[in-house]
Amino acid sequence: MRREVPSIILAFVGLLMIAETFLNIPAVASLSRDVKNWGIIIGGFALALGSANLARFHIVRIARKNKEWYNSVALLACMAAFALAGVTIGPKAASYAFYYNNFLAPMNTTLQGMTVFFVGSAAYRAFTVRNAEAAILLLTAVIVILSSIPLGEQLWSRIPAISKWIQDVPNLSGQRGIIITSAVGSMAIGLRVLLGLERSHFGGE
Amino acid sequence: MNQFMEKLQNTDRRILFALIFLAMAYPMVKPFTLPMSITQEVKSLYDFIEKLGPNDVVLMAPDYSPAYAPTVGGACEAIYVHLMRRGAKVVFASFSPEGPMMAENVIASGTPAGKKYGVDYVNMGYRAGGEGAVAAALQDFPGVFPKDFQGTAIKDLPAVQNLKSAKDISLGVLFSTGGYAGGGWVRQLVQPYGKPFAAVVTGMMGPAHVPYYQAKQLVGLVVDMKGGAEYETLVKRPSGSLAGMGAQTLAQMLIVLYMVVANVTYLTLKKERTRTR
Asked: What count of other Cβ atoms lies within 10 Å of the Cβ of residue B21?
C-alpha cells in the first residue's frame, strides 16, 4: 500500500496534465489548475523541509564538535536572524532591505566574484594542448571569450562572426541533440511513472 | 631558457591572483568603455519592445540572486527602463526566493519620474514550485498571486487587474541563472499560449538557449554582462553592465593570456624533453 497509493496519485496527476494539454474540457482545466496550485503549496513545504534539514545537520555538527563547527553556529545564527526579520518586520520593510542589501548581497556577490581567481588559475594550470581535441577546445574557448568582450572585435573584426558561427552551427546541432534526446528520455520516464514501473523516487530499487 | 620556462610554468598562484585583482581593480579607478557591435539576438528584443505601448502588459521574472546581479541585473534594469518609456505595464513575478528583492532594487534604480507603483509597475513577490508554479501562474495569475509583495490585494492594483492568465500578457521576460530556465518557459508560455518570450541568461547558459532563439521560440536573447551592455547602449542609458565591461574585458584578456603563456611553456618544455630523449 505504501507504494501503490503514491503510484496511483502520480499516475492520476500525470494523466490529468496530459488530458489538459490535449482535451479542451473546462472541468479538466479547472482540476488541473487546482492541482498546479497544490504544487505551489507543496513547494512551500519543501522550502521549510529543506530549512529544517539544514538546521538539523548543523545542530548535529555543533553537538559533535566536528571540525570547524563554529561555521555551523554562524550559519544557524544568520538563518535565524533573517527568518526572524522576515517574519517580524517582513521583507517589504526598509530595514529588511537594508540588511539584505548590506549583508547578504555583498557576501553572496563576493563568493561568486572569487571564482574568477580560480578560473584564472585553472586556465593557467590545466588548459594545455595535450592532443588535437584539446587544441580545438582551446581555440574555441579563446574565440568565445574574446567575443564576449568589446576588445575582441577591436583586435580582429571577424571575431563576432566566427563566434556566432560556433554558436549557430556546432553548438546548435549539439544542443538540439541534447534537447531532443532528453525530451524523449522524459517521455520514457513519464510513461514508466504513469504505468507504475518507475519507483526509484520512493526510495530503494 | 628552459629554466625560465619551468619557472613560468610553476608561477605561484598568488601572483596569478594578484594580476587578476589588478586587472579588475584598474577599471574601477580609471573607468573606460570600448565601442561594441550589437548582436542580432539583443537587437530583436529591443525592436520587439519598441512596438509595445500602454495597452501591453509585460511579465518579468527576475529569477536571479545578488551574486548574479552584475551579470543579468544590468539587462533587467535596461529592459525595465525601456518598457517604462514605452508606457507598457510591467509585472514582476518571481519564481526564485531572491527574485522579489532583485525586482525591488531594479524598481528603485530604474523607475522614471511620473510612473506610479500599482498603476505602471508592480512587484508580485515570489511563489515556490519552480516550473510548476510558472505553469500555474500562467494559467491562473490572480489565483497564484492574489496579493503583491507589499500585501496589497490584486483588485487595488490597476496594472494587474486585467491580467487573468498568459493570454493577457504581451511579452514574458525571464532573467535566469540556472534551473529550468528558458526551456521551461518555452514549454509553459510559448508552446501552450503562443506568447512572445525573451530570456536573459548567464554566459554559461547562453549556448543552451541558442536553439530556442533559432527556432523563433524566443523573440530575444540577452547573454551575460555583454548582452546587458548592448541593451544599455541601445536604450542610451549606461549603467551596471557597461560599467562592468571594463573589468570583464581586462580580466578575460588576462585569462586568455594565461592560456597562451601556459601553452607556450608546456609545448616548449615538451619539445625540449622529446629532444633530450
From this structure: 14
Q: How many CB pairs under 8 A join A and B?
A: 164
For residue B127, which of B90, B152, B94, B160 has the smallest C-alpha distance? B94
User: How does strand B89-94 pair with strand B197-201?
Assistant: unpaired
Mean pLDDT of each 10-residue bin along chain B, 277 residues long: 86 94 93 90 98 97 94 96 98 95 95 95 94 94 94 94 95 91 94 96 94 96 96 95 93 95 93 85
Count other Cβ atoms within 10 Å, centred on residue A44: 15
Q: CA A44 to CA A65: how far, in whole Å? A: 32
Which residues 10-49 of B have a C-beta within 8 angstroms of A? 11, 13, 16-17, 19-21, 24, 33-37, 39
Nearest CA to B122 among B88, B144, B148? B148
Say how many domains are in chain B.
2
B85 and B171 belong to one structural domain: yes
Q: Tell me the pTM.
A: 0.90
Complex ipTM more than 0.90, yes or no: no
Does B213 share its domain with B187? Answer: yes
Q: Which domain holds residue B81?
A: 40-237
